[in-house]
Here is the input.
Amino acid sequence: MVADALIYHPAVSHYLKFVATTVGRDKLLRTLQYFARFFAWYLLRTNRLKSAITPWEAMKKQFGLVRKVLRAGKNVEHFKAAAVAADAKTMDPVLRYATVGRQLGYAGYLTMDMATLLDATGIRKSASAKRFQQEAYRFWAAGITFSIVGQMYTLYQLRQREARVDRKEGEGVLESKRIAMERAASQLQLTSDLCDLTVPLSALNWVAFDDGIVGLAGTVSSLIGVYLQWKKTANDCTGCAVNQPQAADMITHHHIRSIVRPGWAPCDVEKKGHISLAKMAAQAEIEDLGLCILGLGTQYPPHSLQPNSLEVLSKRFYPESPAMKKVLSINRYTGIDQRSSIGTPDHPLVNQPNPPTIAEIHDAFMSDGVPLAISAARKALEEAHVDPTQVTHMVSTTCTDSANPGYDHFVARELSLKPNTEKVLLHGVGCSGGLAALRTAANLCLGHTARRKPARILVIALEVSTTFVRSELESIHASQETRIGAALFSDCAGALVLSNSLPFPASTPTHPPPPPIYVLLGWQHHTLPSTETDLGFDVDPQGWKVILSPRVPSITQSVLQPTFASLLSTLPEGALPRSYTSPADFDWAMHPGGATILSGAEQALHITPEHMRASYDTYINHGNSSSATVLSVLDRLRRKDMDSLAPEGRVREYVVGCAFGPGITVEMCVLRRNLGGGGGGGLRPGMETPPETDESGGSDVGDEGSEVSGEGRESRMDGGDEAESSEGCRREDKEAFISEALEGVELD
Here is the structure.
C-alpha cells in the first residue's frame, strides 16, 4: 500500500533518528532562531509593518530561550573534557592546548549562561544577569578563537602529511582519501567557527556587525550543524531494513519458522488469519539461510616487527648477495609498516647458529600461538553470548603447524568445551583457510538445521608465520632465489561464532542472543587448474617453505570477476536488493596477500581502495597473517573509524569476503552486515556509538560551531591491536571522551 511505502520509507526512519537526538533538535531550533533574526532585520530594513516583524522577533526570542534551558548543566562536561585533554600526553601539544582552551572557553560560557537562566525565564530577575551574559560572550569568543587556531594547525599538518604520500600505491591512495576527508572536515569546521565568531563579537560591541550579518552567519553555521548531524544519523541508519514495528513481527516470524512442521503450506497459516506473517516467513526463506555471525574476536601478539627487522637478521647470519639484497630491497617497499609477531629479532628461536627445526617451531606454535587462539575464541564467545558448553562444533584451521592431536584439541580443552563437541581441523588450505573454515561451518550449520537441532559453531584460524624467517633467509642464501614470504607474513589468531536460527531447548540455560554482526547469504569455492606450483606452503625439516610465483597476482586478478558473477548467480532471487549488482556496490573484505593482490583487485573489479579499506588497514598495520587475516579484516571493517572512510561516504550493507589459497583456490562469500540495531554496524557492546544525549550528542558543536574534525583524534587509522595494555585502553577512553565532548557542544 502507498501508506505502508511512505511509513516504512528509509527517509522517514532517518528523520525519526535525526529528531530523536538532542543535537538534531538543537540544530533545527538554532537554524530557525538565527534565520528569524536575519529575516526580522530584513523586514525592518525594507520598512515592513511591525505586525509582520513581531512573529519573527518572537520566534528568535522563544527558540533561543528553549535552547538555553536545554543546555543547562552541560558546563560540567566541558570542564571534564578540558581536564581529560590536559592529561592526554600523546596528543599533539598544539592541538592539546587548543582543545583545552576551547573546552574551557565553552565551559565558561555555559557556566555564565546558566547564571542568567532564572532571569531569562522570568522566574527570578537579577541585576547581574547582563554582566553574566557579557562574561559568557567573552568566554565564547575565547573558545572559538582556540578552535580556529586548532583548525589552522590541523590544515597545516595535513599539508605536511600529503607531501609525504605516494599515490602510486593502493595504501597511498587510501591515505590521500583520508587526508582529503580530514581537510574537508577541518575546512567546514573553520567556516562554522568564523561564522559563529560574529555572534560574540557583535554582542560585545567589539565589531559593528548588524543583525543581518549575525543572523545570516548564524544560519550558515547552523545549517552546517544540521548537515553533519543528518549525515551522522544516516551512517547510524544506513542499511537498516527493519524498524521497530517490523522487528516485533520478525520475532514472531522467527518463532513460526522454528515450530512450523515440514509440509505446512503458507495457505495453512493464511487460513488462520496470519497472511502477513506467512509472507514474511516465506520471504525470509528466500533472503537468507538463517546463518548468523554473532561474535568476532581477533588477537595479535604483543610484538611488532619493523621493516628493518628482516635486515637485522640477514646481516647477523648471512653474507651479502644479489638475491639477499633484492629481497631486502623489496622488503622496504611492501607497504607494511609493521608485522605482528610472537617475538622480536632477538628471540632465541631465530638466533641459533642454524635455523630452528620443525620440532622447535611446533613448540613455539603451541606455547606462544595457542594462547592467541584461546584469547580470540573467548572474545568471540563473549560477544556472541554463547557459553563454551553450548558450542556444538569447532572448525579450526592453520597452515603453520601440523600435529596429532591438532592445536584445536588444546584450545577446546582450555575453553572447557564439552567432550562431545564435534571438531574439524582444516589443513592444506593456506591463506584461504579463514573463509574455508567459515564455509565448512556453514554447511555443518545447515546440516543441524535440517535435523532441527541448534548449532553454535566456533571457527578459529591461528597462524604463527614469523618463526620461519631463518628458514626463508637460509633458502635465499643457499639458492639465490627471490623469496619474499619473510617480508610479508605475520602472526595472528581470529575467531567467530556462527549460529543457525534454532534455539536451544527451554531446559538449557542460555543468554539472550545478540543481534548478528553479519548474516551469511552464500559462498563460492573454486580451484584453478594447473596452478599447484604457483602458490603453496611446503613442509621442510627447517620449518615451512613459502611458494609464491610471480604469476600469482595476474592469476588472482583474472579469476575475481568470474567468481563474483558466479557467486551472485547462485543466490536466490530477492536475496540482494536491486542496487547490488556490480562489485563497486559492495564493501570488500579482501584477504591482503600483498600490495599487488589488492591493487590487482581494484583493477579487476573496478573498485577503489576505500572499498577494501579494512584490508589495507590490516595489511599496513599487521601484515599478512595467512588464514587468520580475513577474520581480522571482517572484525576491522565493522569499526566506526572504518565507516568514515567508506567510498562516497556510504557504508555498504552487503560485503563480499574473498581469499586465495594454495591450489590455487579462491573462496568468496556474501555477507549482510548489521548496520542497524547492533552487531556489525559498529553498535556492538563496548564499541557502540554513544547514545544521543546532551552529554554525547552528535558530530558537531552547537551554537559555537559544528565539530567536524575532532581535534583529539589520531589522524592515523588505529592498527586494531587487541593486545593493548590497560594504560593504552585508558588513553583511548580519554581521547574518545574528548572527541565526544567536542561533538556534543550546544551553546547559544
